[in-house]
Amino acid sequence: MAENIHRRIDPKMTRTIGRMTFAMLVATCIAPFVAYHLASGVAIGALEGQLQRSLVLTNRAIETEIERFRYLPMVIGEDARIRAIAGPERGETTLAAANAYLETIVRQAGPADLYVLDARGVTLAASNHATPESFVGQDYSFRPYFRNAMRKGEGRYYAIGVTTGKPGYFLASRIDIAGKPPIVVVVKADLSPLELTWEAAGVQTAIADRWGIVFLSGNPDWKYRPLAPLGTEASVRLAAERTYEGADLAARRPILPEGVGLPSGALEDPALHLEEGGAPLLARFSTVEPDGWRVLAASGTGDTAKLAGFWALAALITGLLATGTLYFLHQHAQIIRMRLRQGELLERMVAERTRDLACEIDMRRRTEDELRHAQEGLIHSEKMAALGRMSAAIVHEVSQPLAALDATLATAGVLAGKQEAGAAGERIVDARSLVRRMQRTVKHLKTFARKDASELEDVSIDSVIGNVVDLAVPRTKSLGITPVIEAQAPSPIVIAVALKLEQAMLNLLLNALDAVEGRPDPAITIRRTQDSDRVEVAIIDNGSGIAPEHRERIGEPFFTTKLTGEGLGLGLSIATTIVRECGGEIRFAEVPGGGTSAIVSVPLGRRDAGNLEAAQ
Q1: Which of 26, 150, 246, 513 is most solvent-facing, going by the fewest CB within 10 Å?
Q2: Mean per-residue pLDDT over the chain, rounded
Q3: For residue 526, is pLDDT > 90?
Q4: Which fold has domain 72-190?
């Protein structure tokens, strides 16, 4: 019964529940941050869209308010009563008529003030001529709107009135009258209704001039504050034009954070994060042309943070509930399995311990016998390795010529019996060639044993590479490898002993084949390159490479990383000696991605070296 219950509670299922519990715990830790970030991003995006729509409406309201008075100076300038005061012959009656006309227009059209300036910037007539703050006789030639009107025909400017102390938007037009000096008609529009509307609605909206000075704002704390610190040019210009007469701009703290310059007001510009009175704000900007005003719309982000916090809390609670449920299921399954297995474990432990004690004695005996046999085998393998490698070298160099010599002499005998002396002679010449090859092989072995240098000659390096690849064919076939030879024709000529150079390259190729044995994708590349005086042959494998601790010792005699019996450690030492006799060297380099590159560098032969010098 217990076994049946135990089978129903699958260990894999218990482990799966455990993994799910851990994964859910990790997800619960991460989910609040992700939920907060996502919810905050969505809320900020919605708030940015709301601010963008608010900017569009604000821009239209500003343009509409200004458009009401844009053509008023030109229309007034066409009136005969205004034109009559342009000449020097104007009298009191003419000025009184002009003043009365301007007063009537203000009462009916609704601008704050209307006045006419002569060519010097002195007021001739004004709608407020009868008030203590009359503009008549005042010199406004320093105002930009007057200078622009005289120069370009039109001028516009927002500033605090130097006479009334009230801010307004000044629109000016030059009126040219034949035979008389020009006059400038100025209308002062009051934009304060916009400001009052923003204040009543509690909207964080403001307008700043091209220097970044806020002159209209729904937030009273922002008025006449710069968006960013004022530069020297701005301070000088504002003082000269008396734009904000009476406002201490230098003492006011900028609205934007430190290090943030004046925004361009482009729609694609990112929103800015501000802090006003300890409350975080999100702000966007737009521009109003042609004055270069910047319209600011801002909104608090406190509700955004609360909304993001709510979703983060919801994600945390949901994750904790899910994690708790999975943890309860996992613990419940663990307790049931533990109780069912307690009895079985005790019985198994007693039985296993009894068997272990019995097996331990046998294992110790067998281990002692195996160690003794292994020691004897290692000693025997070391002896047979030296004998086998030397015998294999001699047999390889002599057996093939002997077989060929036997076949050649047999053919020569048959031809001699047929009295074909010419053909028989050719076979005897071939036989002598094979004998000379064996003599060269034996002479090479004796020469190498005495360490005497053989005579150097011009050798075709591609012939050497081809012979080496042919000699290694049985080994490459057994590994399923076809070495790739990368060389451009024609073959360069090098100074070397052909047979010895073949032996050295064959040793390097066999080492490369040993390195890639057992790999799923073995590859050997033989790459031949040359420069002005040397030829390099690189044998590249994709094996495991040379261990860092073995790099300094790979050329030492009797040093080998192979198992005992697989080599004597003389191959690289012999190859290095051969290449040095030819005036060259062997280098080893690591290949990116794993593997080793064994590079044989030998000097060019006299023929190729002469050709290169002639070409140069």
Answers
A1: 246
A2: 75
A3: yes
A4: Beta-Lactamase (3.30.450)
Residue 20: per-residue pLDDT: 73
pLDDT of 13 reads 67
Contact in structure between 282 and 51 (CB atoms under 8 Å): yes
Is residue 170 a contact partner of residue 243, using CB atoms and an 8 Å limit? no
Lowest mean pLDDT among 2-16, 340-354, 364-378, 473-487: 2-16
Strand partners, 604: 494
Task: Note every long-range contact of 76-81, with CB atoms under 8 Å and residues 24 or more positions apart, other chains counting.
Answer: 76/101, 76/102, 76/105, 76/114, 76/185, 76/187, 77/173, 77/175, 77/183, 77/185, 78/175
* Cα separations in angstroms, 146 against 55, 157, 181, 234, 576: 30, 9, 15, 19, 96
pLDDT at 527: 92
Nearest of 242, 240, 285, 239 to residue 262 by alpha carbon: 285
CA 435 to each of CA 397, 464, 502: distance values in angstroms, whole numbers, following the listed order: 12, 21, 20
If one counts every other C-beta atom within 10 angstroms of the C-beta of residue 182, the result is 16
Q: Dihedral of CA 458/460/461/465: which sign?
A: negative
Topology adopted by domain 455-615: Heat Shock Protein 90 (3.30.565)
pLDDT of residue 184: 92
Site of tokens 């590159």:
597
C-alpha 507/C-alpha 441 separation (Å) is 16
Q: Whole-prediction pTM value?
A: 0.46
* The domain over range 193-300 is classified in CATH as 3.40.190.10: no
d(CA 411, CA 417): 10
And the tokens for 51?
């601010």
User: Would you say 86 and 189 are in contact if contact means Cβ atoms under 8 Å apart?
Assistant: no
Residue 539: pLDDT over 50: yes
Higher-confidence position of 196 and 425? 196
